[in-house]
Amino acid sequence: MGEGRVDDYIKRVIGLLRGSSLNSPVRIAVMLYLAGKGYAYFNELLEVTGATPGNLWSHLEKLEKQGMIRVRRVIKNRPRVLVEATSKGLGETLKLIRALRRILEEYGGD
Fold first, then answer.
1. Is 59:71 a contact under the CB 8 Å cutoff?
2. How many structural domains does the chain have?
3. What are 30-61's pLDDT values in tens digits?
4. What is the CATH number of the domain that holds 102?
5. Which range of residues forms the domain containing residue 21?
């Protein structure tokens, strides 16, 4: 299909990101991981994102403030921080994935 249509999709994705908590690579990585798994421990997210502990914590606070995740401290063998995706967070993440998929389909799926 035409370039104009692809440009429209790209503009929609950029608009989604501007108005979303998902306007950071670290936050996108966290939400994509949680979309696949539902929950993760802080140390898992450190490994997945490659962020420093302070940087990751800052991003988690922003996601939690926006209602995208829940952060809980749990004691199971040892104290740990558990991060869970909320239905709002999953919904926004899936909306972004769908928009990106449309762009890829426009380019032939390569």
1. no
2. 1
3. 999 999 999 999 999 999 999 999 999 999 99
4. 1.10.10.10
5. 3-106
